[in-house]
Design brief:
By secondary structure, this protein is of the alpha+beta class. It has 13 helices and 24 strands. The two termini are 23 Å apart. Bound molecules: flavin-adenine dinucleotide. Flavin-adenine dinucleotide binds next to helix 1, strand 2, strand 3 and helix 7.
Length: 506
Amino acid sequence: MHDVVIAGAGPVGLFLAGELALAGCSVVVLEREADPHPPLAALPLGLRGLNAGSAETFYRRGMLQQLLKASGVDAATVGADPDADQAPRPRSLGHFAGITLDAADIDPAALAYRLPGPAMDGFMTSLEAVTGVLTERAAALGVSIVRGAPVTAVTQDEQTVTVTAGAQDHPARWLVGCDGGRSTVRTLSGFSFVGTEPLFTGYVAKVTFADPHQLPMGFQLTPTGMYLRTPLEGYLGMMDFDGGTFDRTQQLTCEHLQTILRRVSGTEVTLKEVHLASSFTDRAMQATTYRHGRVLLAGDAAHIHSPLGGQGLNLGIGDAMNLGWKLAATVRGDAPDDLLDTYTAERHPVGAAVLDWSRAQVAAMNPGPNAPALQHWVRDLLRTSDGTTQVYRRSSGLFHRYDLGSEQPLIGRTAPDFRLTDKTTLGDLLLDGHGVLLDFSSQQRLSEQAAPWKDRVRYIHGRPTKDLGFEALLVRPDGIVAWADTSAAAAGKELQSSLARWFARS
Ligand SMILES: Cc1cc2nc3c(=O)[nH]c(=O)nc-3n(C[C@H](O)[C@H](O)[C@H](O)COP(=O)(O)OP(=O)(O)OC[C@H]3O[C@@H](n4cnc5c(N)ncnc54)[C@H](O)[C@@H]3O)c2cc1C
């Protein structure tokens, strides 16, 4: 019997599998598709934007350089010299509702606690590159990945969950559904999935245009929808506000796509050939809880929304980073009673905020008399430093804060990448997925308190190269600050209760 079965070898299932295996769990991933290289995952249609929060997550597990290489991205455009006095202004920003943002408008002073390091910015990649790197890591850690194995049945009792794929049953202690937006695990396990119905059908296609000069590059908001061209050869994106009524089981013909393109572009452009195409909608739904007994959900299985603003993959990677160490500690019998419940408590609000973020963009693009007024107002807002900085805060994945019951603004947020005078970084210390207690005091004041936790929390004493005003920090395995001390003298009860909250054995 495995500790955990994961349904779905998409990016979220693979990331989670790696986290669990890193923490010593036995894991099997059951993937419906036999082909590990689906054409939709490769460029151009597999193009995905990872935000700075995801770059940081890959960095903290030692995969950033490999992913940058697989994505053809220069590491210098993502990182910053750790010896620099301060963190650089973010470089890439994207768009809100097709209205592009200028990173030069961001106010770095409003972005507290950033320290220069290798993972400062997001970057463009492909699903193929992400799943390639994650598959390699999972395999190296001993995860077994079974392809051509669609999950068709799930039963659970108090001790076990049994997952059927093909003719085979896979008993395990836990099941995580990472099987995408139309999750079978979610349906079979009785989760409720609630939200809003779609307004549009979206399309991405690789095409050959007869007369490409008719369509300018970039996001084009029109009175009837939106289309997008990028420098990637033949890439076409479109949004058609048809009420999301297109039957997605239908084949995407050249004729259909041309009709839509002519409608949304208001041109007579001609498509010579469609090489590959896919459709989606802006249906925005979320599971009301991410756990039912021994079954959990992560990634698109837990939440779906339109791809506007490029958040779904980032959100799912965040789910996996949050869930991995908690589920592993539960499997090992190393977790406080309610640790697993904090997964829904922390990640559900983050997911709900992303759903709203994408809804707001749909509202600003929905053709009709009101959208131009809203777009005008958004453009005005984005000409201000505060407006652009706020959009960056919402979309970068670095500034959400879990409510851990403290007023201290860093607690509940991702930790800055402290660098010690011996050149060790926090990223180095998190590589093996342990919690870390950083003691910056001159006399190792916390070493005695840390001693009883040493099999679960690494105690590190050192001086940081930059002073952010902390004498000590307790960082969870997912890089979130659980406790921070501004004066070592006050450390004591609060540190012990935080250690107990996250690391005590039940
Ligand atoms: C056009 C487009 C552009 C996007 N751009 C971005 C972007 O720029 N940035 C971003 O962050 N996000 C983006 N997204 C969203 C992102 O692609 C998804 O959120 C992400 O792929 C979700 O990962 P996942 O692993 O949860 O699910 P998936 O990638 O859907 O993987 C699920 C896996 O489960 C398998 N599966 C399904 N059913 C079963 C079953 N019954 N049994 C076993 N296996 C099963 C599937 O075959 C698949 O391999 C975009 C989405 C689209 C459509």
